[in-house]
Design brief:
Aldehyde Dehydrogenase, Chain A, domain 1; 2 domains; 23 strands; six-stranded mixed sheet
């Protein structure tokens, strides 16, 4: 079994804490590596390295910083098959899905190549006689990202690309469940010309996270993961004076109006609910057909589609989705299905008994479909994060709208309809951060920002797009007057423009 490492100061560094966790290959259920869990001292060493490297990196002009990212995009293109294979092996998603994830990460790096433009400040010539005012964006220093298991390439890229483009040094604390791909990314950044120490990867658990949250030299923390941890990281990081943005869990609804194109809606729904085994923060986990007739038609079409989903190992190109991340998570998802039955929801398709021939120890389950789920049930309220779709029947548009709006999570939502008025009203009124109109997973493109509302997000700036540049920089405003200009003499009153 391979022992993994940290990546600090441009080198692989062996773990010294003596604590490890196991990473699995979900398709076979075997343990493939031991992941070192960093101590506070190891985190401190990474922070020291980053702080030393950051000063010089911030002095590199933005055009040259952009060129490193350009080269990185090329190298990721060259290595995309290897990267997808590492990712799929540790996570369990299919190779095609892994390639899609890499692409969505690269798009954010491409956006950051525009950093010379994105970091430009503002300038007012002659704001008063002889007085010019301008603002500039400066890097924060050392910043850190704590990322989840479900996008081990895309989310680290969403974090480190804008941070580094802005002139910060970055410490990535990836999920301990699949750190192989993020470790590989750090080596590719070095090959692209990033100076050692500007991007560091520290593996670990709560101890490493707490060390980052409490370390005075770390100026900002970007977190993505489950809501309880997001809330903790937000509160604890803010208490230590950091800029913090934390993205949490989700329960994304898809509303199907009576006039929707039912074939299009069902295709969209099976892909968005069961793709990646439902382990996406933008997965649809609740379908809300409006009216009994719509609901009956939807469920009649969905049932055979869910029964016929192809579950397979990540390496099977014909699989719709692969195994879940771990045995513990598989059991948790199955427990939710049992709970749904107990709560009185109608289980139309039960994938719990699925066994993958030749891969009997893998973490597989088939798709599950619940009908007649009610809002007071726990399977509706809580995030399951597996291949389980709940149908909640709504009597009308307002009820469907209020279901999505009143849910404690507010990450993504979709409406399927042919009625422009209904779609427009829904998009405008719904209390959710990202909305799709006949688009099931409305993950914004790299040049917009990504973020949910309510308990899906703690903080006030979103990920990627223009918000990322704001998050990873601080603004300085300069008022400037030269001796040759107007002399006003000494003044003891509050300065005004008059
Ligand atoms: P998680 O919360 O278990 O872990 C996320 C990170 O936090 C990992 O790096 C982990 O090591 C660390 N961590 C775990 N427990 C901790 C603790 N007690 N104290 C400090 N740090 C801790 O999440 P996960 O299971 O890896 O990822 C799945 C979750 O992430 C889902 O809830 C999903 O909805 C969410 N997610 C959200 C978004 C978004 O943008 N909103 C995107 C992807 C995933």
């Amino acid at each position: 079994m391979e022992e993994l490492w940290h990546f600090v100061g441009g080198r692989r560094v062996k773990g010294k804490s003596g604590r490890f966790s196991d990473a699995y290959e979900p398709m076979t259920g075997t343990t493939i590596s031991r992941v070192p869990l960093a101590s506070r001292e190891e985190v401190r060493e990474a922070v020291d390295n980053a702080a030393a490297a950051q000063r010089e990196w911030a002095a590199v002009n933005p055009q040259r910083r952009a060129r490193v990212l350009m080269k990185f995009v090329d190298i990721v293109g060259r290595e995309k098959e290897k990267l997808a294979a590492i990712l799929a092996r540790e996570h369990g998603k299919t190779i095609a899905d892994a390639q899609g994830e890499i692409q969505r990460g690269v798009e954010v790096v491409e956006f950051c190549i525009g950093i010379p433009h994105l970091m430009k400040g503002e300038f007012t010539d002659s704001a008063a006689a002889g007085l010019d005012v301008y603002s500039m964006r400066q890097p924060l220093g050392v910043v850190a990202g704590i990322t989840p298991f479900n996008f081990p390439v895309m989310i680290p890229m969403w974090k480190f690309a804008p941070a580094i483009a802005c002139g910060n040094a970055f410490i990535l604390k990836p999920s301990e469940r699949d750190p192989g791909a993020p470790l590989f990314l750090a080596e590719l950044m070095l090959e692209a010309g990033l100076p050692p120490g500007v991007l560091n990867v520290v593996n670990g658990d709560k101890e490493a996270v707490d060390a980052l949250l409490e370390e005075p030299e770390v100026k900002a923390i970007g977190f993505v993961g489950s809501t309880p941890v997001a809330e903790y990281v937000y509160a604890h990081g803010a208490a230590h004076g950091k800029r913090v943005q934390c993205f949490g869990g989700a329960k994304n609804h898809m509303v199907i109006m009576p006039d929707a194109d039912m074939d299009q809606a069902v295709d969209a729904l099976v892909g968005a609910a069961y793709g990646s085994g439902g382990e996406r923060c933008m997965a649809i986990s609740v379908a809300v057909p409006v009216g009994e007739e719509t609901a009956d038609a939807l469920v009649a079409r969905l049932e055979p589609r869910v029964e016929n989903l192809r579950v397979g190992p990540s390496t099977d190109p014909s699989a719709d989705f692969g195994p879940l991340i771990s045995r513990a998570h598989l059991e948790r998802v199955k427990d939710y299905v049992a709970l749904g039955v107990q709560e009185g929801a109608r289980l139309r398709v039960d994938g719990r008994g699925f066994k993958m021939q030749g891969y009997e120890n893998g973490f597989y389950m088939g798709g599950c479909l619940f009908d007649e789920v009610r809002p007071e049930m726990r399977i509706y309220k809580e995030e399951i994060f597996g291949p389980v779709l709940s149908v909640v029947r709504a009597r009308g548009f307002d009820e469907a709208l209020s279901l999505a709006s009143n849910h404690e999570f507010g990450n993504g939502v979709a409406i399927f309809t042919r009625d422009g008025d209904a779609a427009r009203e829904f998009a405008s009124r719904v209390e959710v951060g990202m909305v799709g109109v006949n688009v099931p997973i409305p993950t914004p493109l790299a040049y917009y920002t990504f973020g949910g509302w309510k308990r899906s997000m703690f903080g006030d700036l979103n990920q990627h797009g223009p918000d990322a540049i704001r998050f990873y920089t601080k603004t300085k405003t300069v008022a400037s007057r030269w001796p040759g200009g107007v002399r006003a003499g000494a003044s003891f009153v509050m300065p005004t423009l008059s």
